[in-house]
Design goal:
Layout lengths: L2 H18 L3 H14 L2 H12 L2 H4 L3 H12 L3 H14 L3 H13 L3
C-alpha cells in the first residue's frame, strides 16, 4: 500500500470515529488526514471549513495544521502568519517551542 493509501485508510478510520464520537479534535485530525490522502489543497479546504466553527477554531493545532498545508502548497507568507496565530492560541510549552522553530523552516 502506498503512503497515500495509508492516509486514505487513516482518513476512513477518522470518518468512522467522527460518526461515533464527534469532537473538534477528531474533526481536526480527519482534516489533517485528508491533507495527506487527497493533497494539501483538499486538507486546507477542510481546515478552513472547521475554522468557521467556534470549538475547532480555538485550538492552536488548527492554525498549525493550516500552516503546514500552506507551506506544502508553496505559500510561505501565509504559512508564517498561520504559525504566528497558532503560537497565540497554544498554551502547552512543549508545543510552543516546536512552533517557534517552524516558521524558520518555511522556505520562500
Amino acid at each position: 500500500m502506498s503512503r497515500a493509501g495509508d492516509w486514505a485508510q487513516i482518513r476512513g478510520l477518522y470518518d468512522v470515529l467522527l460518526d461515533v464520537w464527534p469532537s473538534p479534535i477528531v474533526a481536526l485530525n480527519r482534516a489533517i488526514a485528508i491533507g495527506f490522502s487527497d493533497g494539501p489543497a483538499a486538507g486546507l479546504a477542510e481546515l478552513d471549513r472547521l475554522a468557521a466553527e467556534p470549538a475547532p477554531a480555538a485550538y492552536g493545532s488548527l492554525p498549525a495544521a493550516r500552516a503546514d498545508l500552506l507551506a506544502r502548497l508553496g505559500r510561505p507568507e501565509e504559512a508564517r502568519i498561520a504559525y504566528d496565530e497558532s503560537l497565540l492560541l497554544t498554551r502547552n510549552e512543549a508545543e510552543r517551542r516546536l512552533l517557534e522553530r517552524k516558521p524558520l523552516a518555511v522556505g520562500d
